[in-house]
Amino acid sequence: MESTQERGLNDGATGPAPRPAQAGAALELLVHGVGGATPEHMLDDPRTVRVSGDDTAAVFRRADDVEAEKRPVDPDGRPVPEAYVWCNLTSGNGARALWLLLLPFMVANLAHWMRPTAHDRTRTIRLYGLLVRLVGLSLTVLLVAAACEVALDLTAWQCAGTRACAERHTWLGFLSPTASGDGWWSPPGRRLALASLVPIALVGLLWYLSRRTWSAYESEQPLVREPDEDTARSALGRPGFWYGRRLVARLRGAHTAAGLLTVAAAVAQAAARHDREAGGPAALETLGWLLEAALVLGAVMVVVAVCRRGRSEKHLDREIDASLVRHLPLAALVLLALTLVYACWERPAWESDGRLPGDAAFGGIALVQGLLVIVLAVVAHLLYRSDPDPRSAMRGLAGPAVAMLACALGGVMSGGVSQRVADWVDGTRASIPGAPVLLTWQASVIPPLLVVLLLLAGSQAWRTLRLARAERAAVEQDYAGEAKDPDRTRRIARTRAMATLTDRGPLFVAALSTVTLLLGTGALLGALTTDKTPSHAAQHAHPFVHGAVDTAQALGSWLIGLGFILFVTLGRRAYKDRSARRTVGVLWDVGTFWPRAAHPFAPPCYAERAVPDLTWRISTWTRTTGGRLVISGHSQGSVLAAAAAWQLTPAVRKRVALLTYGSPLERLYGRWFPAHFGPAALAALHDEVDCWRNLYRVTDPIGGPVRLPDGDGTAVDCAPMKDPLAHGRTALHPLPAPILGHSDYQADPTFDRERGQLLDRLRPDLPGQRPGDAL
């Protein structure tokens, strides 16, 4: 890169005075897809200059094109290329690799945006959003409860309270009541109070990350528009859609308070139970009842705060619910401090025995999550019936299915860390009771779940193989004029067949979520009806059944721990390895496009920075030059381009064309997020942005057609592009042409032709001409 200093090229609505309009001035604004790209690669020039933006996201030009607006227009009509590079929003530094541990929160947030399309069902839509927010709240409680299980129950209560376990871990000696002299921290209440610092630190870390990203992402204001300029018929075009500052702040306060109250409940319940059972001082027993009542009241206030509406998309809502954001976590912190003081009170006869009531806590969370998912499925079905769309994933049930997967991920992570810590502190000695029985039951259902997935994967592999064989005839027909090469034909046909696996994603999600719900229900019932592990409960059954259950329990426990270790390992590797960090960034490129509407601790929404960047750049450039602009978006960049086009005013849209290629707009977003990218939304975008062309290949596993009707002669989809460009060796391709799939769309001559036609339709000195009107 020749230079990285900003040149201030017509940037900002209050920037330099507008230049005189140049007839025919044209700009192509390139937006890359998932995984990121360098400006040098996007502009095909090693000498690039940043003309606007910062180290996180910026617009680049070739060094020779920095002052392109001041020179004569290219006689060939070629536009000046600009590259918007946004990859650092998701995978810029190593610290963001730790976002992988927030995966359940991200998945729950996706479920919020997967609701079906519905008209005149405002209350039902609000109920859908409320249920997803409650699922997100349960995940926060589950994560903090898992931290309490590890720090309070397994370490401070069980291991430190058992001589054999404490002697193996000398660092717990000052907590053990068997140590010489019995130190000040030896009583169970004080041990629990000290150990509670671990989950408290976890809650503080989540609050800090959410607060920091909220200041960096949700604080980016979109382009301000007048009320009469809001003509977009999609929610993505509303002025406040990409400005969720108020809701995220409110949810952050509520979830922080929920985490602190969870820690307080774990400590208070243990101390209050002892005071009631041991017949201690009446003052302590009364204080225990008062604290538990205050905790219940605090939990009710948290739920009320989560249930309140706070997201306004029809206008920029700059207000903050200060009383909830500040006072609710502060009140929970004060209540937690009182609880710790109460637990530290001297109780001479108190000894730690057995487990803390983790089974009841984890069982209650699992029951609540299951009920929420079931009710969410009923609500989603009602919404789908009001406006059925056969292309919607799982017939409108994608949101509940993904919410179920979020709960399953949370269970795997919480169970995994609990199982591994239990094994670490005690191993196979059985000197302590260990993790809650429910976690063992949940681990035992993982092997049968994997068997179901393997059978499903096998059936889909067989189907793909059959499709590849059937596709050979189509390949030979597409390259009828070229010499036959059976091996080459098989490779092309196999690539086309493999690309169709994306369309079968809903089947995998439906099967995984359904089996998870059924097996999870069985595990919950097994844990509630018996206080024994699955193998102990089946010890009187047939030897084969007992052996199978014992194997499933052992294997599941190992797998659930392995799953958590893989999470940590991948995050650690991504912190050190740039290539691994880029892989993690690809995951966030897809999962964090949407604003944080259901969970404040989810990774931040990069589109709340990228979409305002694009709209500001497009609006200011067209205003200052009076020229034509093509938004050229590849893959995920096409989704950002469409979102930016929705945000433009009608006057700006007349000077803007949209060129998408390798686009998942309909194939993925239209099916999984029908309320915002369904047929009605894409048709509205076509009407509002008259000049729109979409390029795709049948070998592309991500991009596809947008499937809009073309009865008026304004088809959006081009014919599928040939891939590869030649079947064998030809005069134009003396070496075998590569199968490009999802990459290098610009290498096809169709790209330049379609871009040129879009610019012709935007020519200021000619009336707009639709393809159907051409002679």
Automatic annotation (TrEMBL):
Q: Which UniProt keywords apply?
A: Membrane, Transmembrane, Transmembrane helix
Compositionally biased spans, kind Low complexity: 12-24
List the top taxonomic levels of the source.
Bacteria, Bacillati, Actinomycetota, Actinomycetes, Kitasatosporales
Give the signal peptide range: none
**Which organism's genome codes for this protein?**
Streptomyces spinoverrucosus
Task: Map out region (Disordered) in residue numbers.
Answer: 1-24
Give the stretches traversing the membrane.
Answer: 127-147, 192-209, 253-272, 287-307, 328-345, 365-384, 396-417, 437-457, 507-528, 552-571
Q: What is this protein called?
A: Integral membrane protein
